Amino acid sequence: MQYPSRILEKAVDEISQLPGIGKRTALRLALQMLKKPTSQTENLAKSLVSLVNDIKYCKKCHAICDSELCDVCSNPMRNHDLICVVEDIRDVMAIENTSQYKGVYHVLGGKISPMDGIGPQQLKIDSLVKRAADAKEIILALSSTMEGDTTMFYLYKVLKDTEITLTTIARGIGIGDELEYTDEVTLVQSIQRRVPYAASLSN
Amino acid sequence: MQYPSRILEKAVDEISQLPGIGKRTALRLALQMLKKPTSQTENLAKSLVSLVNDIKYCKKCHAICDSELCDVCSNPMRNHDLICVVEDIRDVMAIENTSQYKGVYHVLGGKISPMDGIGPQQLKIDSLVKRAADAKEIILALSSTMEGDTTMFYLYKVLKDTEITLTTIARGIGIGDELEYTDEVTLVQSIQRRVPYAASLSN
């Protein structure tokens, strides 16, 4: 595609480097920016620069935050003996949104995925092992995929000889879901992992 | 949604003001930027600021360009008697990409659309009428929608008393399209607007 302007072409090139945004969408976005007040795009540019330069990661749990420690880790009301291991900050946000979990987190920063060149060294596993010494329970809350399962198994191997209780989030049919629309694997597992009915009443 | 960081929240707010990008996509983009080298996002920010501040519009045809006159308007080899009226720069790019059109353009900057508050005054119609005095033919190449048809009819009313030849691009079934998959309106119109077979051979 020939662009009528070098400046436009440069902007389209830069925008289309964002994941999931192709040249066509990038051009549409660039042209929309030209229709909006200049200040709006300048503010966007400023906040992007601030994002990549000023953002901090919690020294303890590696979650994104604005200070040395995140709000969860610095909160004395949270249960610091209970650590929930998640893949990234979006999982923390999703769990925090429920306002039900009272423990703390540990953000791995990804899952073990040799295809993407991500091994245990690329993840925050060493610091988890160090933190684990002071904790009573670690909840492995990674996604139920090949990579998630591999990562959880790796963490299990690393932590199984400690005193710590290792748990994983419950897998099964979602609350409100209908059986007939559930995928086969989940359905089979939900029967294999059945729990006493009386136990389910206590939740 | 509670964000763990003000800086992240600000960035997500700014990104999600782009058309077609919601909060969730904005968050995904922001987190991806944090995984990429800082320089990449800084370059993106720079090119956006440059886009909205440094871009120029051709004085003659209002197309986006880097100088006073666009490459087409400043090219003496183009036929300046033939003006193709289009909605926006993307249409110019699409036609230029074919390398077949030898005339010049006029970018209206939109279509008459009272619902969006766009009337003839918001479009570059006055300057088209001025340019028309020196031209022999004007091709109306707007999209075949309610707004496009309205805009073309308005231009027809404005220009019909001049010496100029007013044409519109051919409507019909696309080259290579199959009749059975063509929408009804196009099919009906393609029969009503049928042309002598011998005339179609000359193209």
UniProtKB/TrEMBL annotation, chains A, B:
Zinc finger (C4-type) boundaries: 58-73
Species the sequence originates in: Profundicola chukchiensis
Keywords for the protein's UniProt record, in alphabetical order: DNA damage, DNA recombination, DNA repair, Metal-binding, Zinc, Zinc-finger
Domain Toprim stretches: 81-174
Protein task: May play a role in DNA repair. It seems to be involved in an RecBC-independent recombinational process of DNA repair. It may act with RecF and RecO.
InterPro entries registered for this protein in UniProt: DNA_Rcmb_RecR, Rcmb_RecR, Rcmb_RecR_Znf, TOPRIM_dom, TOPRIM_RecR
Keyword Zinc-finger: yes
HAMAP family noted in UniProt: RecR (MF_00017)
GO biological process, one term: DNA recombination
Gene Ontology MF annotations: DNA binding; zinc ion binding
Family designation: Belongs to the RecR family.
Name of the featured protein: Recombination protein RecR
Transmembrane regions: none
